[in-house]
Design a protein that fits this description.
The two termini are 21 Å apart. The protein has 165 residues and is mainly α. 17% of the residues are buried. The protein contains seven helices and four strands; from the N terminus they run ββαβαβααααα. Helix 1 (33-52) packs parallel to helix 2 and helix 4 (115-123) crosses helix 6. 50% of the residues lie in helices and 10% in strands. Helix 2 links the parallel strand 3 and strand 4 (94-98). It has a single domain, classed as 2-Layer Sandwich (Nucleotidyltransferase, domain 5), CATH 3.30.420. Strands 1-2 form a two-stranded antiparallel sheet. The chain has helices spanning 33-52, 71-89, 100-106, 115-123, 126-129, 139-157, 159-163; strands at residues 2-4, 11-14, 56-60, 94-98.
Length: 165
């Protein structure tokens, strides 16, 4: 999560959150594992959004990974759950979804770049590295940092469009 200066959108701080969806599942509930994960995710995101009340959320669009073709279904469910929880917590939060290729293009690494290229790109952005030790981040955190940063770049270019309801 990026915290920004509301005047010029400079990064004030960056926080990352990790949630193990399987660890928090209540075994006494008689529902399937995926439904349990979605319930945990919904509650976590709802509480996070209720606490911080963000004006805008940047997310990655679901995509088909040829190595794991069924993952697109799970990813779509997670993205929908995050959107629903965010909208329920604050109806006026703007949600912008970016395709992975667009994020890679904006980070100047090309559409088919691997995680190492993305990490190298993030490592070259002092605005991020002064808040996060990029040598300790996972590939998912790299994705989140890139998506958030691309959103911030767009926010700086078109603040009225992105923040209008």
């Amino acid at each position: 999560m990026y915290k920004l200066d509301p005047v010029n959108f400079n990064i004030i701080s960056i926080e990352t959150y990790y949630i193990n969806l399987d660890y928090l599942v209540d075994p006494t509930l008689f529902i399937d594992q995926m439904s349990s994960r979605l319930m945990v995710l919904y509650n976590y995101i709802f509480n996070l959004m209720s606490f911080y009340k963000p004006l805008v959320i940047f997310m990655e669009a679901s995509f088909l990974n040829v190595k794991y073709p069924l993952a697109v279904i799970q990813l779509s469910q997670y993205i929908s759950t995050i959107g629903l929880a965010s909208r329920t917590a604050n109806f006026y939060t703007k949600i912008l979804v970016y395709p992975p290729r667009y994020v890679k293009k904006m980070m100047a690494v090309g559409g088919n770049a691997d995680k190492n290229a993305m990490l190298a790109s993030v490592d070259n952005i002092p605005e991020i590295t002064k808040h996060v030790d990029v040598t300790l981040v996972t590939e998912h955190v790299v994705d989140a940092l890139c998506i958030g940063y691309v959103g911030i770049l767009e926010l700086r270019e078109r603040p009225l469009y992105l923040l209008s309801v």
